[in-house]
Amino acid sequence: MRVFLQQHPSATEPARYLQLTLQPDLFGGWELLRESGLVGGRAQLRRELFLQAEPAHRAFEKARDAQLQRGYQITYTSGVAPR
Fold first, then answer.
1. Among positive and negative, which fits the CA dihedral 67, 71, 76, 79?
2. Taking a C-beta distance cutoff of 8 angstroms, is the pair 1, 24 a contact?
3. Which residues contact 41 (CB under 8 A, 6 or more apart)?
4. Can you tell me the distance from the alpha carbon of 6 to that of 37, in angstroms, rounded to the nearest whole number?
5. Listed residue (9, 7, 20) closest to 70, CA to CA
6. With contact defined as beta carbons under 8 Å apart, do 1 and 79 qualify?
7. What pTM did the predictor assign?
8. What is the DSSP-derived secondary structure letter of residue 54?
């Protein structure tokens, strides 16, 4: 599942984005990928590994909800119902 969130730009700062991707890995575990940065600029990619699906889903939802509280808005979702 994947969700793309974007924060609207202010007068002094460009727009920021965050993309969360949750996917199974080749060894039966799960990967949570967090890509963030400025739209049209450099990005940072962080990877978190989980052995089971349930903790991975909870971490995905927690990360999504935290960004929604910070003012990000969901732009695109795939495989997950938006909040």
1. positive
2. no
3. 14
4. 10
5. 7
6. yes
7. 0.85
8. H
CB atoms within 10 A of CB 35: 15
Alpha carbon distance 6, 25 (integer Å): 26
Name the token pair of 77: 């979702």
Q: Is 65 exposed, middle or buried (0-12, 13-18, 19+ CB in 10 A)?
A: exposed
Other Cβ atoms closer than 10 A to 81? 6
Task: Look up residue 34 and give its two tokens.
Answer: 């967090």
Q: What is the end-to-end Cα distance of the chain in Å, rounded?
A: 14
Domain boundaries, the chain: 2-78
Separation CA 2–CA 54 (nearest Å): 16
15-48: per-residue pLDDT in tens?
899 999 999 999 999 999 999 999 888 899 999 9
CATH architecture of 2-78: Single Sheet (2.20)
